[in-house]
Design goal:
Order of helices and strands: EEHEHEHEHH
Number of strands: 5
Number of helices: 5
Bound molecules: zinc ion
Distance between the termini: 74 Å
Strand content: 5-15%
Amino acid sequence: MIVFDLRCSGAHVFEAWFASSSAYEEQRDRRLLVCPVCGDSDVVKALMAPNVAAKGNARQVPAVMPTAATPASDAPSPAVIKAAMQAIAAIQAQMLEKSEWVGRAFVDRARAMHSGEADVAPIHGQATRAEAEALIEEGVPVAPLLVPVVPPEALN
Ligand SMILES: [Zn+2]
């Protein structure tokens, strides 16, 4: 008999006895190994080397090693990110409903509105990063769009 320290995907470590190393592998492959804490059947060996027997209290508790098979569970899944991007795009579309697309004329129009040469109205369009920074330095209230906007002329 040999004992293995096993670890479930929930990072619970527990001991299990097997007739042999191959008996462990067979039971693992058939997903017969179940975590006694949470019932998870996604169980792997927590240690590389099996312990033949526990020697009193001298045996050390195995440390759990992070592996590539243990992704950070806090990281949002691609589906969550996609849903968030769609929500942002919807909010932006709402904001832009009453705004006029002016394309490359954006910088001139924004500057004219800021100086009083033109009536102030909500507009959105295109500007280079340098142009946008220059506007902000002049005190023109511009903000980057949250998601790229497809110019109306590109939809035709
Ligand atoms: Zn568990």
